[in-house]
């Protein structure tokens, strides 16, 4: 239900939550878990601005009380850089739609498999077309953790905080400011892991690798220094860089070396004690979302795993980073996932595969699916290439249906959402096993320091 005003929130929470100054106390945990948290999360997304702010604050405070903490994965990746563990690849999941149900599935699978090494993430582009701002995304993820009884660090990441090459060329200062504003909003919302992607600025026409990577490492260093200036006290945000734009040519050890040498030189100019990168994304032959064939099926990908292994080795031994990151992997065949830990991949990003489970589920209402596809055909027809078949166009574009139809998906009958969530949970179970992150609870607890963080209390909370 949508709360009409603050009085209705107060009535709904009466006897379940109490406010003591600026602290929330859970008076009835059973009622809170059975129904109240669902209502609070729903209103944190769909309520008016005043109600959204109150509900997001309530979720944050309840999470802290129950030992659920937005955290940085920095300590874990530093341990990998120092050889304290190996043969583990952390999955980073982009959730574009049905976010509450998907996050709940992810937490259930994590609890079942004793997993603590996993990341929730959302890219700069996804924030726009899925209509999920950072504060909303954090609230929904933490709400899902509360609902499922998960405890411990929750890693939330800004993925592909990417520089637009066209906007940068027209007004570099404006584009950098836009990214800094997004980073500030994200860190304030509990995103303590940020992936900077200035690989769009790499210029392969330059004569030397250093010059090809120059704008990339200069911008990455500037944004990294900015992150260090705003991170909460006691938290070192995990920052990633990128040397190979996904879908372009495969990365090389020389590119990694020149990028990181230049990056450290630039970062040193901004502050000698500033912490550098924890990982670096590279290109191995994948494409975001996979390559759809005319019949809508996905083409087989030739992925060079040795790129991951060789660059991870050089990164750890020469620059003390955790290793390489693989993007665009969720549509790969199941047998490929065993190889990521074997080839020293520190992190793998997954997105489209979960989207496909949602859209292609036999439980997803056919009428809603057709309504979304109709919207895509009519409103997004300008994005259809002449060479695209109907199936290719829908497959490549349906990710943009999550924003306009967010509420309709959320309002699907509970039994339907539960069935789809169970299908997602099966996928997460499989990935956790393949990526070898099962039973990582002790490892993460040993290497990651959780830190309670207070966020600004809404003025309207005094009305409760």
From TrEMBL:
<dbReference type="InterPro" id="IPR050246">
    <property type="entry name" value="Class_II_FBP_aldolase"/>
</dbReference>
<dbReference type="GO" id="GO:0016832">
    <property type="term" value="F:aldehyde-lyase activity"/>
</dbReference>
<dbReference type="Pfam" id="PF01116">
    <property type="entry name" value="F_bP_aldolase"/>
</dbReference>
<dbReference type="InterPro" id="IPR000771">
    <property type="entry name" value="FBA_II"/>
</dbReference>
<protein>
    <submittedName>
        <fullName>Aldolase</fullName>
    </submittedName>
</protein>
<dbReference type="GO" id="GO:0005975">
    <property type="term" value="P:carbohydrate metabolic process"/>
</dbReference>
<dbReference type="GO" id="GO:0008270">
    <property type="term" value="F:zinc ion binding"/>
</dbReference>
<dbReference type="InterPro" id="IPR013785">
    <property type="entry name" value="Aldolase_TIM"/>
</dbReference>
